[in-house]
Amino acid sequence: MSLSELRTVVRSFLAAHPAASWARFSGELGVAGLAVDERYGGAGCGLSELAVVAEEIGRALSPHPFLQTAVMATAATDDPELLGAIAEGALTATVVLPGEHSCVLDGDRLTGSAPYVLDAEAVLLYVGGSLVAAEPSARVPYETMDASRPLTALSFDGAVARPAGDGAAWERVRDLAVIALAAEQVGGAARCLEAATAHARLRHQFGRPIGSFQAIKHRLAELLLVVESARSAVWGAVGDPSAQAAAIAGSYCGEAYLKAAGDSIQVHGGIGITWEHEAHRYFKRATSDARLFGPPRSHRARLEIG
């Protein structure tokens, strides 16, 4: 299947079945195992396919745990059992990176907490130089304004931790996550531009579409440039997924999405701030995404260090 065909299939599914479960989404489309080796029941695809699906998930504001399961967990572990369950769609998994938790490992016992974690069933943590899997003693879901990105607080009280394989180093997992998140941000930003452009064509003032007014035309033209530049940053990183390329994508796409979501509300005017319209949902997602793996300035700081 080509990338364009994959995009069409995923977009059509998410539009037709917005409330479909992860098991159905991953089972019918096979997206959970895109990056899993064929030996473990996956498709053996690469970052290009992951980016396409991530972009469509961002466009649809899907709450599916694709980022943490299909991107991060499949890169972090090489455990056949875990990968097989993920590829089958029978298990969701999340990865907690160093700096995102206060856990310590004493032998095979894990104690501590991870305050903000992408929600999933299995929990993998980088701790003490190793990747381990452990069952939290407690899970407390957050009541966040952005309901499309479920977060939970985890605590461990002497939980049994077992080795979860020797997959990618945590820096590599972080970079892949940043690139996939940037693709999601591009999808959301493109949807904001699409919605704002459609509204500018339909909304009339003084007897003509507001899209014919110079101020609106300039805003939308500038936004088109921002969105396409963000898309270029993502696909540049997909083609060369280095730490530098990931930092560039993370830096630019987070701010691009915030601008697109904000400008979309401005173009929509009064209706754009109503609870019934979708514009506020994209603004919330853009705001939460911009903090997920560090704000844009943190990615720029990594560039300066490099």
Automatic annotation (TrEMBL):
Instruction: Tell me yes or no: is Chloroplast among this UniProt entry's keywords.
Output: no
Q: What is its EC number?
A: 1.-.-.-
* Gene3D superfamilies recorded: Acyl-CoA dehydrogenase/oxidase, N-terminal domain (1.10.540.10), Butyryl-CoA Dehydrogenase, subunit A, domain 3 (1.20.140.10)
One of the Pfam families matching this protein, by short name: Acyl-CoA_dh_N
Q: Oxidoreductase: is it a keyword of this entry? A: yes
Top-level EC class:
oxidoreductase
Mind listing the UniProt keywords for this protein, alphabetically?
Answer: FAD, Flavoprotein, Oxidoreductase
| UniProt-listed InterPro entries | AcylCo_DH-like_C, AcylCo_DH/oxidase_C, AcylCoA_DH/ox_N, AcylCoA_DH/ox_N_sf, AcylCoA_DH/oxidase_NM_dom_sf
Q: Which domain of life is it from?
A: Bacteria
According to the entry, every stretch annotated as the Acyl-CoA dehydrogenase/oxidase C-terminal domain falls at: 179-295
Single Gene Ontology MF annotation: oxidoreductase activity
Domain Acyl-CoA dehydrogenase/oxidase N-terminal stretches: 18-66
Cofactor(s) it depends on:
FAD
Q: Which family does it belong to?
A: Belongs to the acyl-CoA dehydrogenase family.
Name the chain's protein: Acyl-CoA dehydrogenase family protein
Q: Which organism is this protein's natural source?
A: Nonomuraea roseola
